[in-house]
Amino acid sequence: MPVLKGRGPIVRLALAGWRKASSSSRPPGQSGVPSLLAAPLLGGVLIGTCVIVADFFIRRRSPYEVFLKKKDEEWMERLQKLKEHYAEEKQDPPPGTALFHFVRVNRNAYLLPTGLPKWKVRELEAIEGWRWETER
Which residues cross the membrane (predicted)? Predict the structure, then answer.
């Protein structure tokens, strides 16, 4: 029988099971099937465990991604309040309020070289009454 070198423990287990199943030292009436299935079953369990562990680490989010998601959710909440304000008032929020600060921060960020993300620009421009320039 050829010996496969460097193939790892799974191949060695499979070969050991094959050797046991093919040996004539078994008492009559005992089947070699359990030992033949042990190596593939063990290999399947090991591979399945590796897949589950890899999937866990791939899907896990970094703390920075969690932080960014939270900031985007907060931004969307403020955007909703701004939409409600423009629906009622039809003008910019009064100075000194949280909504005024939100508008000012977004207008200033829009002017920066890095700008605002395109999805934020689309959301703000969808508000009736929104403008990028300020009244003086």
Answer: 36-58
Picking from 127, 84, 132, the residue whose alpha carbon sits closest to that of residue 112 is: 132
Contact 99, 82 (CB under 8 A): yes
Query: Hey, what's the torsion of the CAs at 67, 72, 78, 84, to 10 degrees?
Result: -150
Tell me how crowded residue 116 is: count the other CB atoms within 10 A of its CB.
Answer: 18
pTM score of the predicted model: 0.56
Q: What is the pLDDT of residues 81-104, one digit of tens each?
A: 999 999 999 899 999 999 999 999
Q: For the chain, which residues make up each domain, given as ranges? A: 9-59, 63-125
Residue 5 tokens read as 């070198």
User: What is d(CA 8, CA 42) in angstroms, rounded to the nearest whole number?
Assistant: 13
